[in-house]
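Hi W., the adenosine-5'-triphosphate complex you wanted:
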Amino acid sequence: MLEAPNRRQARFITFEGGEGVGKSTQVRRLLANLGRHAVEVVRTREPGGTPKAEAIRSFILQGRSEAWGAGAEAVLFAAARLDHVNELIAPNLAKGTWVISDRFCDSTRAYQGLTGGVDDRLINALEDLALDGHTPDLTIVLDMDPEIAFRRVEQRTLEDGLQLTGDRFEKEELEWHRRLRQNFLDIAGNNPDRCVVISAEQDEAALENAIWSVVSERFPELQGGPDA
Ligand SMILES: Nc1ncnc2c1ncn2[C@@H]1O[C@H](COP(=O)(O)OP(=O)(O)OP(=O)(O)O)[C@@H](O)[C@H]1O
Ligand SMILES: Cc1cn([C@H]2C[C@H](O)[C@@H](COP(=O)(O)O)O2)c(=O)[nH]c1=O
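Structure:
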């Protein structure tokens, strides 16, 4: 007997891009849209997503591993990812729950590899080990001029009445952020089946619609309208 098609096959979607391009905002909006289509979905982030990976996140972003160099940091990000994949991503996908992650393996390639100069062989080996086959089904790369992204983050900080401090990576020079932007575009260019680049220089609702068009086209099971 033929089995009915699995209309709710779990998908793994990642968001990538430079600092302040709107990833977290759009992860939240996509989560809500998927919910309206009765998709069970969990939202997560990297580095982080599990208690052990969050501990590694704090360690790195506080600057405590900076002196060890980009290679050692790539290993730390991969250690966090290994736990994240084993404890959160793989089990959720296995039980049919979609996973959306704010950053994933392309961030290691862009920041530690292409920007930090870590050898491709190490980046590739770490990626193979940590992912263990859990390559995202779709990666949305949000792209924008880093100067505009900075202004947005500055505005948010002022509105929150906070000091503009930034974590380690947010403090880098504008030129560094421009290179980073190009690195994400290059990664997307090298992975055209998985990655879709979307301009983040549009308002939140317009960007949400652009992302939904890509996601619903990629996964036709979503095309029945909300709550279908
Ligand atoms: N499309 C948009 N237009 C204008 N402002 C936006 C837009 N999307 C997000 N913002 C604002 O820009 C700031 C950064 O957004 P957000 O935190 O979603 O970015 P991010 O890429 O997750 O940042 P980070 O890299 O720091 O984690 C926030 O103040 C947010 O409200
Ligand atoms: C996964 C990953 C992240 N990073 C950097 C990128 C950002 O500067 C921070 C994470 O902060 P966010 O506010 O959650 O975006 O970490 C990295 O360098 N390498 C990685 O693999």
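The first strand starts at residue 12 and ends at 17.

W.
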